[in-house]
Amino acid sequence: MLDRKRQSVTGLLLLIVTSLLPGVAAAEISVARGSSSAAPAQQSESAPEWVYTLRSGETLSDIGQSLLMDRVTIGQVLQYNNLPGNARLSAGEQIRIPLAWLKRQPEPARVSSASGNVMHVSGTTGQKTPLTENSVIRVGDEVISSAGTATIVLADGSELRMAPNSRLIFNRLTQYGKAGMADTRVRLQRGEVHTRIKPVLEDGARFEIETPSAVAAVRGTVFSMQTSASGSSVQVTEGVVDFGQPGQVRRIPAGYGASVSTASAIPMNIRRLPPAPVLNPITPVLTQLPAELSWQQDGANRYRVDIFEEDGGTWLQSREMPGHRFDISQLDNGRYELHLAALDRQGITGMPAITSIEVDLQARTPDLISPEPGESVNDDMPEFQWRLNGTNEVARVEIAEDEEFRRLITSSEWAPDNRALPSRPLSPGQYYWRVVSEAGGNSVAASQPRALVVNGTLPPVRIISINYLDNQVRVFWEKVDTAKDYRLQLAEEPGFNNIIKEANVADTTAALRLIPGRRYFVRVKALSDGPLASRWGPGRELYLD
């Protein structure tokens, strides 16, 4: 019997509330156990409240400690809900709590992605720093995008995507209790934002965007908003937005846009948005490019395509164009969300058609053409040629001293060509070269290496320093890139006619033990695997006291 009374009270409350609040779905309103049919309506008008659902294992004492301000007791909450002081609630049951009774704490927003030139201005110090992924944004901070974009996640999981040339000021970032219900108020000083706000209860969490000419308050919706010196506009994709000049706010439902002008006497212009274009089928996973997004002609003259990374939410591109095709061949590997919308005669974006695609390109091993394996060349800037076997690939030639490419000497620039020159001249010696191809930004493939000999004479080796320590002398000399080893000679006269010591050294230094009081002379030359002549460097005198 008691359950039936509760059900009838619940139904009556839902009917009253939904009739008073047009445009708000009944599913958004929850009624707690023990509420009467009259009291909640009166209380909610004077004090905005939050309906909290108990979780498994949670007690009323837990709620008091985690959600309520110090001056508020759980007994007051029970009384507010017309429940006895010894009431016991179980998981899934609900109680109403006035917002004024909830703990308030500042809760910073966080940056989930940032690309290009975006600056973060501290509200406390005024210091400007580049905005990066995982940057923390606090009350009073500003984010200014010039040629970049940013995606910012609020305390309740709602998302703001900033377009280039925008300025956003965070005036309030407050979280109630522990469950992520937030009061967020930002000012869009210029530019454009796309928002995806999590649905919230009536008179619960609050999200508001203010511009110099208008304000938009939402409860849970997807919309975009623009502002400039001439006015502000909004386009609502899901849910509703209360938009307009202060004191002249109108409720804008999904599928409609509105604008206010600083130069017009008309307070607001409300219009239906152009419908979403009909997209032609596209392969969900692209393993080769080129590819294009296309759609059916619907009478619009211009369209707008916005491309977002599906994981981080980075706003990658925003393009306006005529026609009904868009080339997507420049996308790297990854998952993307594509938004396509028609533009009306005033340039206002309509309802978007949204599709997701994944680019998954695999680089293929290129075939080497020339020089031939082990070929000798006389040019210190030889041309390298190869053949690419994949689509939409770029490649570069890499040149190393060793076959394992641990000691890279030089390379060419990345390009979609099949031939290239090294970025700097090659000294005479033996080298190894290969071609590395790349597809999709992260898939690479490398050819097998080939040996190459650049003809000429190895440069003479210059001794750069000599250190004396007791009866030992350490000699240091310059490195020659293509040298395999070095030959060192020690003599007692500068003509090196009487060699008293000769040895091959793999390093660019050697230690010699000498007799004090006698003069010596040392010189070094480079050795190579290839058929290259080499010359001795100038000799240096050694003397130990």
Automatic annotation (TrEMBL):
A Pfam family hit: LysM
InterPro entries: FecR, FN3_sf, Ig-like_fold, LysM, LysM_dom_sf
Segments forming domain LysM: 50-97
PROSITE patterns found in the cross-reference section: LYSM (PS51782)
Spans through the membrane: none
Name of the protein described by the UniProt record: Putative peptidoglycan binding protein
Organism: Marinobacter excellens LAMA 842
Taxonomic lineage from the root: Bacteria, Pseudomonadati, Pseudomonadota, Gammaproteobacteria, Pseudomonadales
